[in-house]
Structure formats: C-alpha cells, structure tokens
Design brief:
heterodimer; A: 259 residues; alpha/beta; six-stranded mixed sheet; globular; B: 558 residues; 23 helices; 73% helix; 0% strand
Amino acid sequence: MSNQTIVQIQNLEKFYEKKQVLHGINLEITSGQIIGYIGPNGAGKSTTVKILCGLINEFQGEISIFGKDLRTNTLEIKKQVGYIPENAVLYESLTPMEFMEFIGEMRGLENEITRSKAEALMNIFEMKANLNQRIATFSKGMRQKVMICSALLHNPDLIFMDEPLSGLDANSVIMVKEMLIHLAREGKTVFYSSHLMDVVEKISDRIILIDQGRVIADGSFDELNKLSNDENLEKMFTRLTGNTNHGEKAEAFINAFEK
Amino acid sequence: MIKFLLSLFKPFRWFIEKMGADYNQFIMILQLKLTMDNRRTKGIGANAKKETENALIKQSFSQLMIGVFFAIFFFFIKSSFTFYFFFHSFLMAMMAMMIISEFTTILFDTSENVIIQPLPIKGNTISLARNAHVLTYLTLMSFNLSVVTIITAGVKFGFLSALLFSFTIFMNVLFTLFLANMLYLIIMRLASGEKLKNILMYFQIVIAILFMGAYQLSINMVDKTHISNMVLPVHWYTYLIPPAFFSGLLEAFTLFVFDIRHLIFIAEALLVPVLAIFFTGKYLTPIFNRKLMDLEQGDRVSKVKTETVRKSLWYRMMFGIFVRRKGEHAPFKLIWTMTGRERLFMQSFLPSLGFIVIMIAVQFFRNNTFNLDEIIHSKLYLLILYSFMFIGLTLPASLLNGNNQQATWIFKTVPLSLPADYFKGFIKAAFARFFVPFYLVISVGVCFLWGYTVIPDVLVAILAIYLVTTLFYYLQSPGFPFAQPKTASQGGMAFVKMMGLMLTAVALGLMHYFLLRWSAYAGLLLIPLYLGLIYYVNRIFVYKKITWEKVDEVNIYP
C-alpha cells in the first residue's frame, strides 16, 4: 500500500455564508504517512478535517479519497475512515461499551468482535475497569481515550485526528504518539491536526501549514528547515504566520490590564 | 423588553443589597441569562441560523390566549372573595406547575458555575440572580395569564379592586417562589448528588400528575350551574390558605369592609410574601448554594451495570416485532438504553403516562357516579384506548429534549445512507419500551371488563396510535435524540400542537365509534387501512421526508 495516493484535494474552497475560510487548497497525501496539519486558530484546519470526514457536505473543489469521489462515494469512504473530533463530547448517559457497540454495529462489525476489541483497546489505556461506567463520570482525558478507541475500532486505513492529545496525561500522550508511528508503519495514513508543535515535529513525516485558509508550507520538517533555517517548528510556525512580535504583544497585554 | 424587565428591579435595589448581593453584578448576571434565553436558535443546531429574538413575545401571546380561556370561567362568579380566591388558586397551581416542569432545571443549573465561580461574585448574588431569573418569567407569565381577568375584575368590582388585584398577583408570585425554594430544600435534605437528581426527577413527575389529577377532579366536581352564586365560607383554617390572604384583602377594598376578619387577611397578604422572600434570600439561598455544590459533585460517582436491560426477554421480543431493517438495529438499541437514563426525557414523557391514567379514571367517575353495569354496556373502552393518543404528542417531542447537542457528530461519521433508518429505530425503541407494556396492561383490563369481542378494537386503537406517533415524529424537525436544550423561553406552541393532535385523536376515535355502531365487527375494517398507512408512512413517506440535507439543517457536528 506504500506510496499510493490516498487523499487528493484539488482547489478546495469553503464559505460560511459570505465568509471564505478555505481558499483553494491543493494536496496529495500518500499512504503510510503521518501528516501534521498545523495552523493558527481560525486557519481552517477543523473545517478541512470535517469536509474530509463527510461531516460538511457543502464545499467547492474536488476531493477523492481511496480513488473515490467524496461527494458521490461518501458511504464507501466512511467505512475506511476513523475520526477523532476536537471536542470530546459523547452521549453521557451511555457507557464506553454501549457507545462502541453502537459504532461497531453501524460499521457492520459483529457484536462479539466489537466487544473484544473495545476491551483490548480500553485495556491499553488502563480503562478496562471503566467500560461499564457512564461517560458522564469521566474526566476530559478519559473521554478522549474513549474517542480514540472508538475511532480505531474498525481498523480504518485513514485516520483523521483533530487535537487528539487534548486532555491526555503524559503517559497517554507518549503511548498515542508511539501508536501513531506504528499505525503509519503498517500502512495506515494519519491526518493529524494540532496546535502542539513539538508533537507534530517529532512524529510527522510531512507537515502542512495553513494560514487564513491557504497552504503556506508543505514538506518534511527537514525540507522545510532547509528552506528557512528555523531551529524548530514553533519558530518556523510563528515566522510563517507573521506572528514574530510576541514580545511586543505581551508588553501591550501587560500595559492593557495595568491601566 | 429585557431592558424594561431589568428596570423593574431598580426599586428593589435596597432589598437585593440587604440580602447580601451586589446589585450591579446581580443585574449583569440576570441580563446575561435573559439575553441568552431570548436568543435561542429556532432549530436545534448552529446550522439552523434563524434566531428567535422574539421568543418572549411569542410565549406571552400564547399565555394571553390561555388567560382569555380562564377569564370566561371566572366571569360568572358574583362574589368578589370567591372570584379572587379561585383566580389566585388557579394562578398558584399554574406557577407551581411551571416551576416544577420548566424551571427546576434552571434553579438547579450548575453549568454556569465554571464561568461565574472563579469571578469575585458572592454566592448570594448568584442565587438571587437565579431566583430573579425564575421570578421574571413567573411574573411575566402571571400577568399574561391575568390581564383579561384583571380587566374583568375592573368591570365587575371597580378600578381600585383591579389595581390591587395586580398588586396581589405579584405578591402571590413571591410567595409561590418561596414555597418552591422551601420544597426543594426539604427534598435536598433527604438526599444528595446523583440520588437527589433522581428524587427530583420522580418528584417532578409525581407533582405533574397530581396537578393534572386535581385539575380534572375539580372540573368534574364543580357544579357549573351554581358557580355564579357560589360563596366560599370562611373557617378558622381559611386564614392559613394563601389564596385567601389575597382574596380577603381584595374583598376588603372592593366592599370597603375593614372588620377584624378582613384586617387579618390584609396583614397576611402584605406581610407573609415579604417575610417569605426575605427569609428565602437571607437564609434559604446560602443552604441552597451549598447543596447545589453537592449536586455537582454527585455526578462523579455513579456506576451503572449494563446489558441487563438489553438481554431481557421483553427487549428481544420488541426488537423482533418492531425492527425490520438492518440500519434500525443499532439506533433501536441505543435509544432503548438511553431512554431509561435521560432525565429530561423522563421528566417530560413520564407525566403523560400518568395523565392517561387520570384521564381513564375520570371517565369511570363521570358525574361523580360509578355504575359498572352502565359502563360495560357502553363504548367507554374506546375513550380509554384512544386516551393513549396523548403519547403521540409527548413521545416525539420528549425524544428531542436533552443536553447532548455536541454529541450528535457520531451519527454523521458512521456509514449510513438513509438517515430515516436512525429515526425509525429511535421512535420504535421509545414506543416499544415505554408505551407497549403500559397499553398491554390497560388492554387486559379492558378485555376483562368488556369481553374478548373488543380485542379487534384494542388492535385497531394501537395501530392508530402507532401511526399517529410515528407520523408526528417524522413530521417534526429531524433533530438527533436528546440534543435540544430545554429553555426557559420554550412556550405555547406545544399547546397548539396538542390541540391538533387531540383533534386527530378525536377524529380517529369517532371514525372507529361510528363503524362500531354500524356493526360490532366493523372495527376490523380499519386494521388493513391502518396497516397500509403504517406501511406507507414507515416505508415510503419517512424516506422522502428525512434526508441528510434536512438532518444537517438542524444538527451540529462539532
């Protein structure tokens, strides 16, 4: 499956009423890669992910995933895709097992398979004991773990993650990072949208930086570094998004509330 | 309108500060709450962009209409004491209903704590603002319901009487709010945390049923021919009945009688509500706050055993009968599980089952007599069976209410081509879990009393109810379950819908009744008709009606 084109985006545009949030995005993503998709707040990261997952149907441009047109083959594509949204909101009156059973059944998995997978995945996060507790009683990190497990339940070939490490403890963060690297080695493609520059820098095979709905940098960290000579991704990010004057802004901030 | 409402608190600034609250912070919190109520989106999600800026005005209009309906009833009462006594009793009952059914969630809402608690705002300010929020709606509702009766009072008893009537309405509101606080504190002493939430839910359900029962009973008990000349006697205990305080004061100023009896009523009407609200603000509010904190903590410790419900024989039977398409399997299971746990659902739906029991009981005791022989030779069983049509309205709407707006993304990410399958699974599960067992029990009673010959009619009625319930569910906006927040400004449209449904029920019931008059087995003719209609609604109509485009218009996918 290596180097096979998994996602092809041509001239993707998105408007929210009259406001344009994506301005002609063009991307080609091949299999077995971890794509770090970064950008400042409001750059259009979550919108891109939602379009690719089939949550937003209205967009301009062409998208094909697994060689199929997203508009006409949404269902076929959804079968091979896993999604972890930015906000870990789940039906609180359900337990993780009930939630995953619902997802498993909707994805055509046998109930027994769903249950054994759910147990195995939750066990990795040391949450097997919580399988039958209501989600309402969980912390944000625990909910995030349920979300990660439910997205991987059907062994998807393409995984979209929008801030997947949000709320996780340090051990779980390390574990998820390792897990992503292993998934990529097995030929899975991970589309990883995040604000956490150090994580993106360490795990991504390719980094795509978007700002105001446009791709402004695209390549591996080494390739991008050769062009810019920034010591790390964070510096590169601040320079490319035009936010280098942080010191001045901090001073203005202090002045504003000291008045 | 919000500015006007806020300005009404200005004269009471001294009182609010005396209660230990910061007036400016109090007004800011209240303004925020009212603004948010008034800007609830009309649909369910952010995709439904039309905002109901005028939610308050629309709600007021529907309450005015209900007020007109009741004013006609009060118009014929000649005695001023009786007139005002009945009206204040009616108002207290309406307010108690409103507090219990609509405002409990607001009084117990702790969601804003995360924003407000880190700010330097005293607990008393927050609680007083919370009470003032409810007070604003209660006052508004009370005056909407009373306007026509106030005019009627002006015509019948003079301008001064009507003016003082308006004043006593406000005093009544204050007193009722105090009663609600007291009542909730007593319940809160009995339990805490998750257990308290469950007790509150069942308490709301029981109270709602009791009010419905009391209302039906009073309607049946009052002899309408004598109502115009009715004069309520005053006993020693009359001085302890709150509506009597207000009606005593009003009678004193209507007839200009200031004897000892009326002076006691005047003192009670003026002092009791003021002392009650002072007591609420000064002493009850801090306890209420402490208990609310417990309530919030309680959510962290609940554990549920799963799978027991799903594996029950009843579940498997209902699944076998109702679920036909593969796409409906998982939604059916999901809602079967969730309906037993979602409090808002149970709060809004379970009282309707109680209402049905009361409606049935009232049919048996019509005209204050109970003649079994007469009953079993009548077609009363049709009325009993068709009372269940009430479900057709409450079940579809109850499935919408909940605080899970952000959790609906899951329905969009899994591969399902026809969203109608979701909605079919949802309504079938709720119908099978909550309606069928109840109907079966009543049907057994009906067959026992009227004999096995009514079995076809029992079948016809359940088919008619199933048809109407599913049709109403598919006709309402296709919001995913338990994802529409219940707000303070939700109002009178339910009344209009209920009327529409009742008319449908009456029409279907009458059709059945007239067929039976023609022939004892003519009801059987309706079975193929309803089966055909159910097939059409559930196999053809629903797929045309509920498409992804329509579903996306009303749901958020974060």
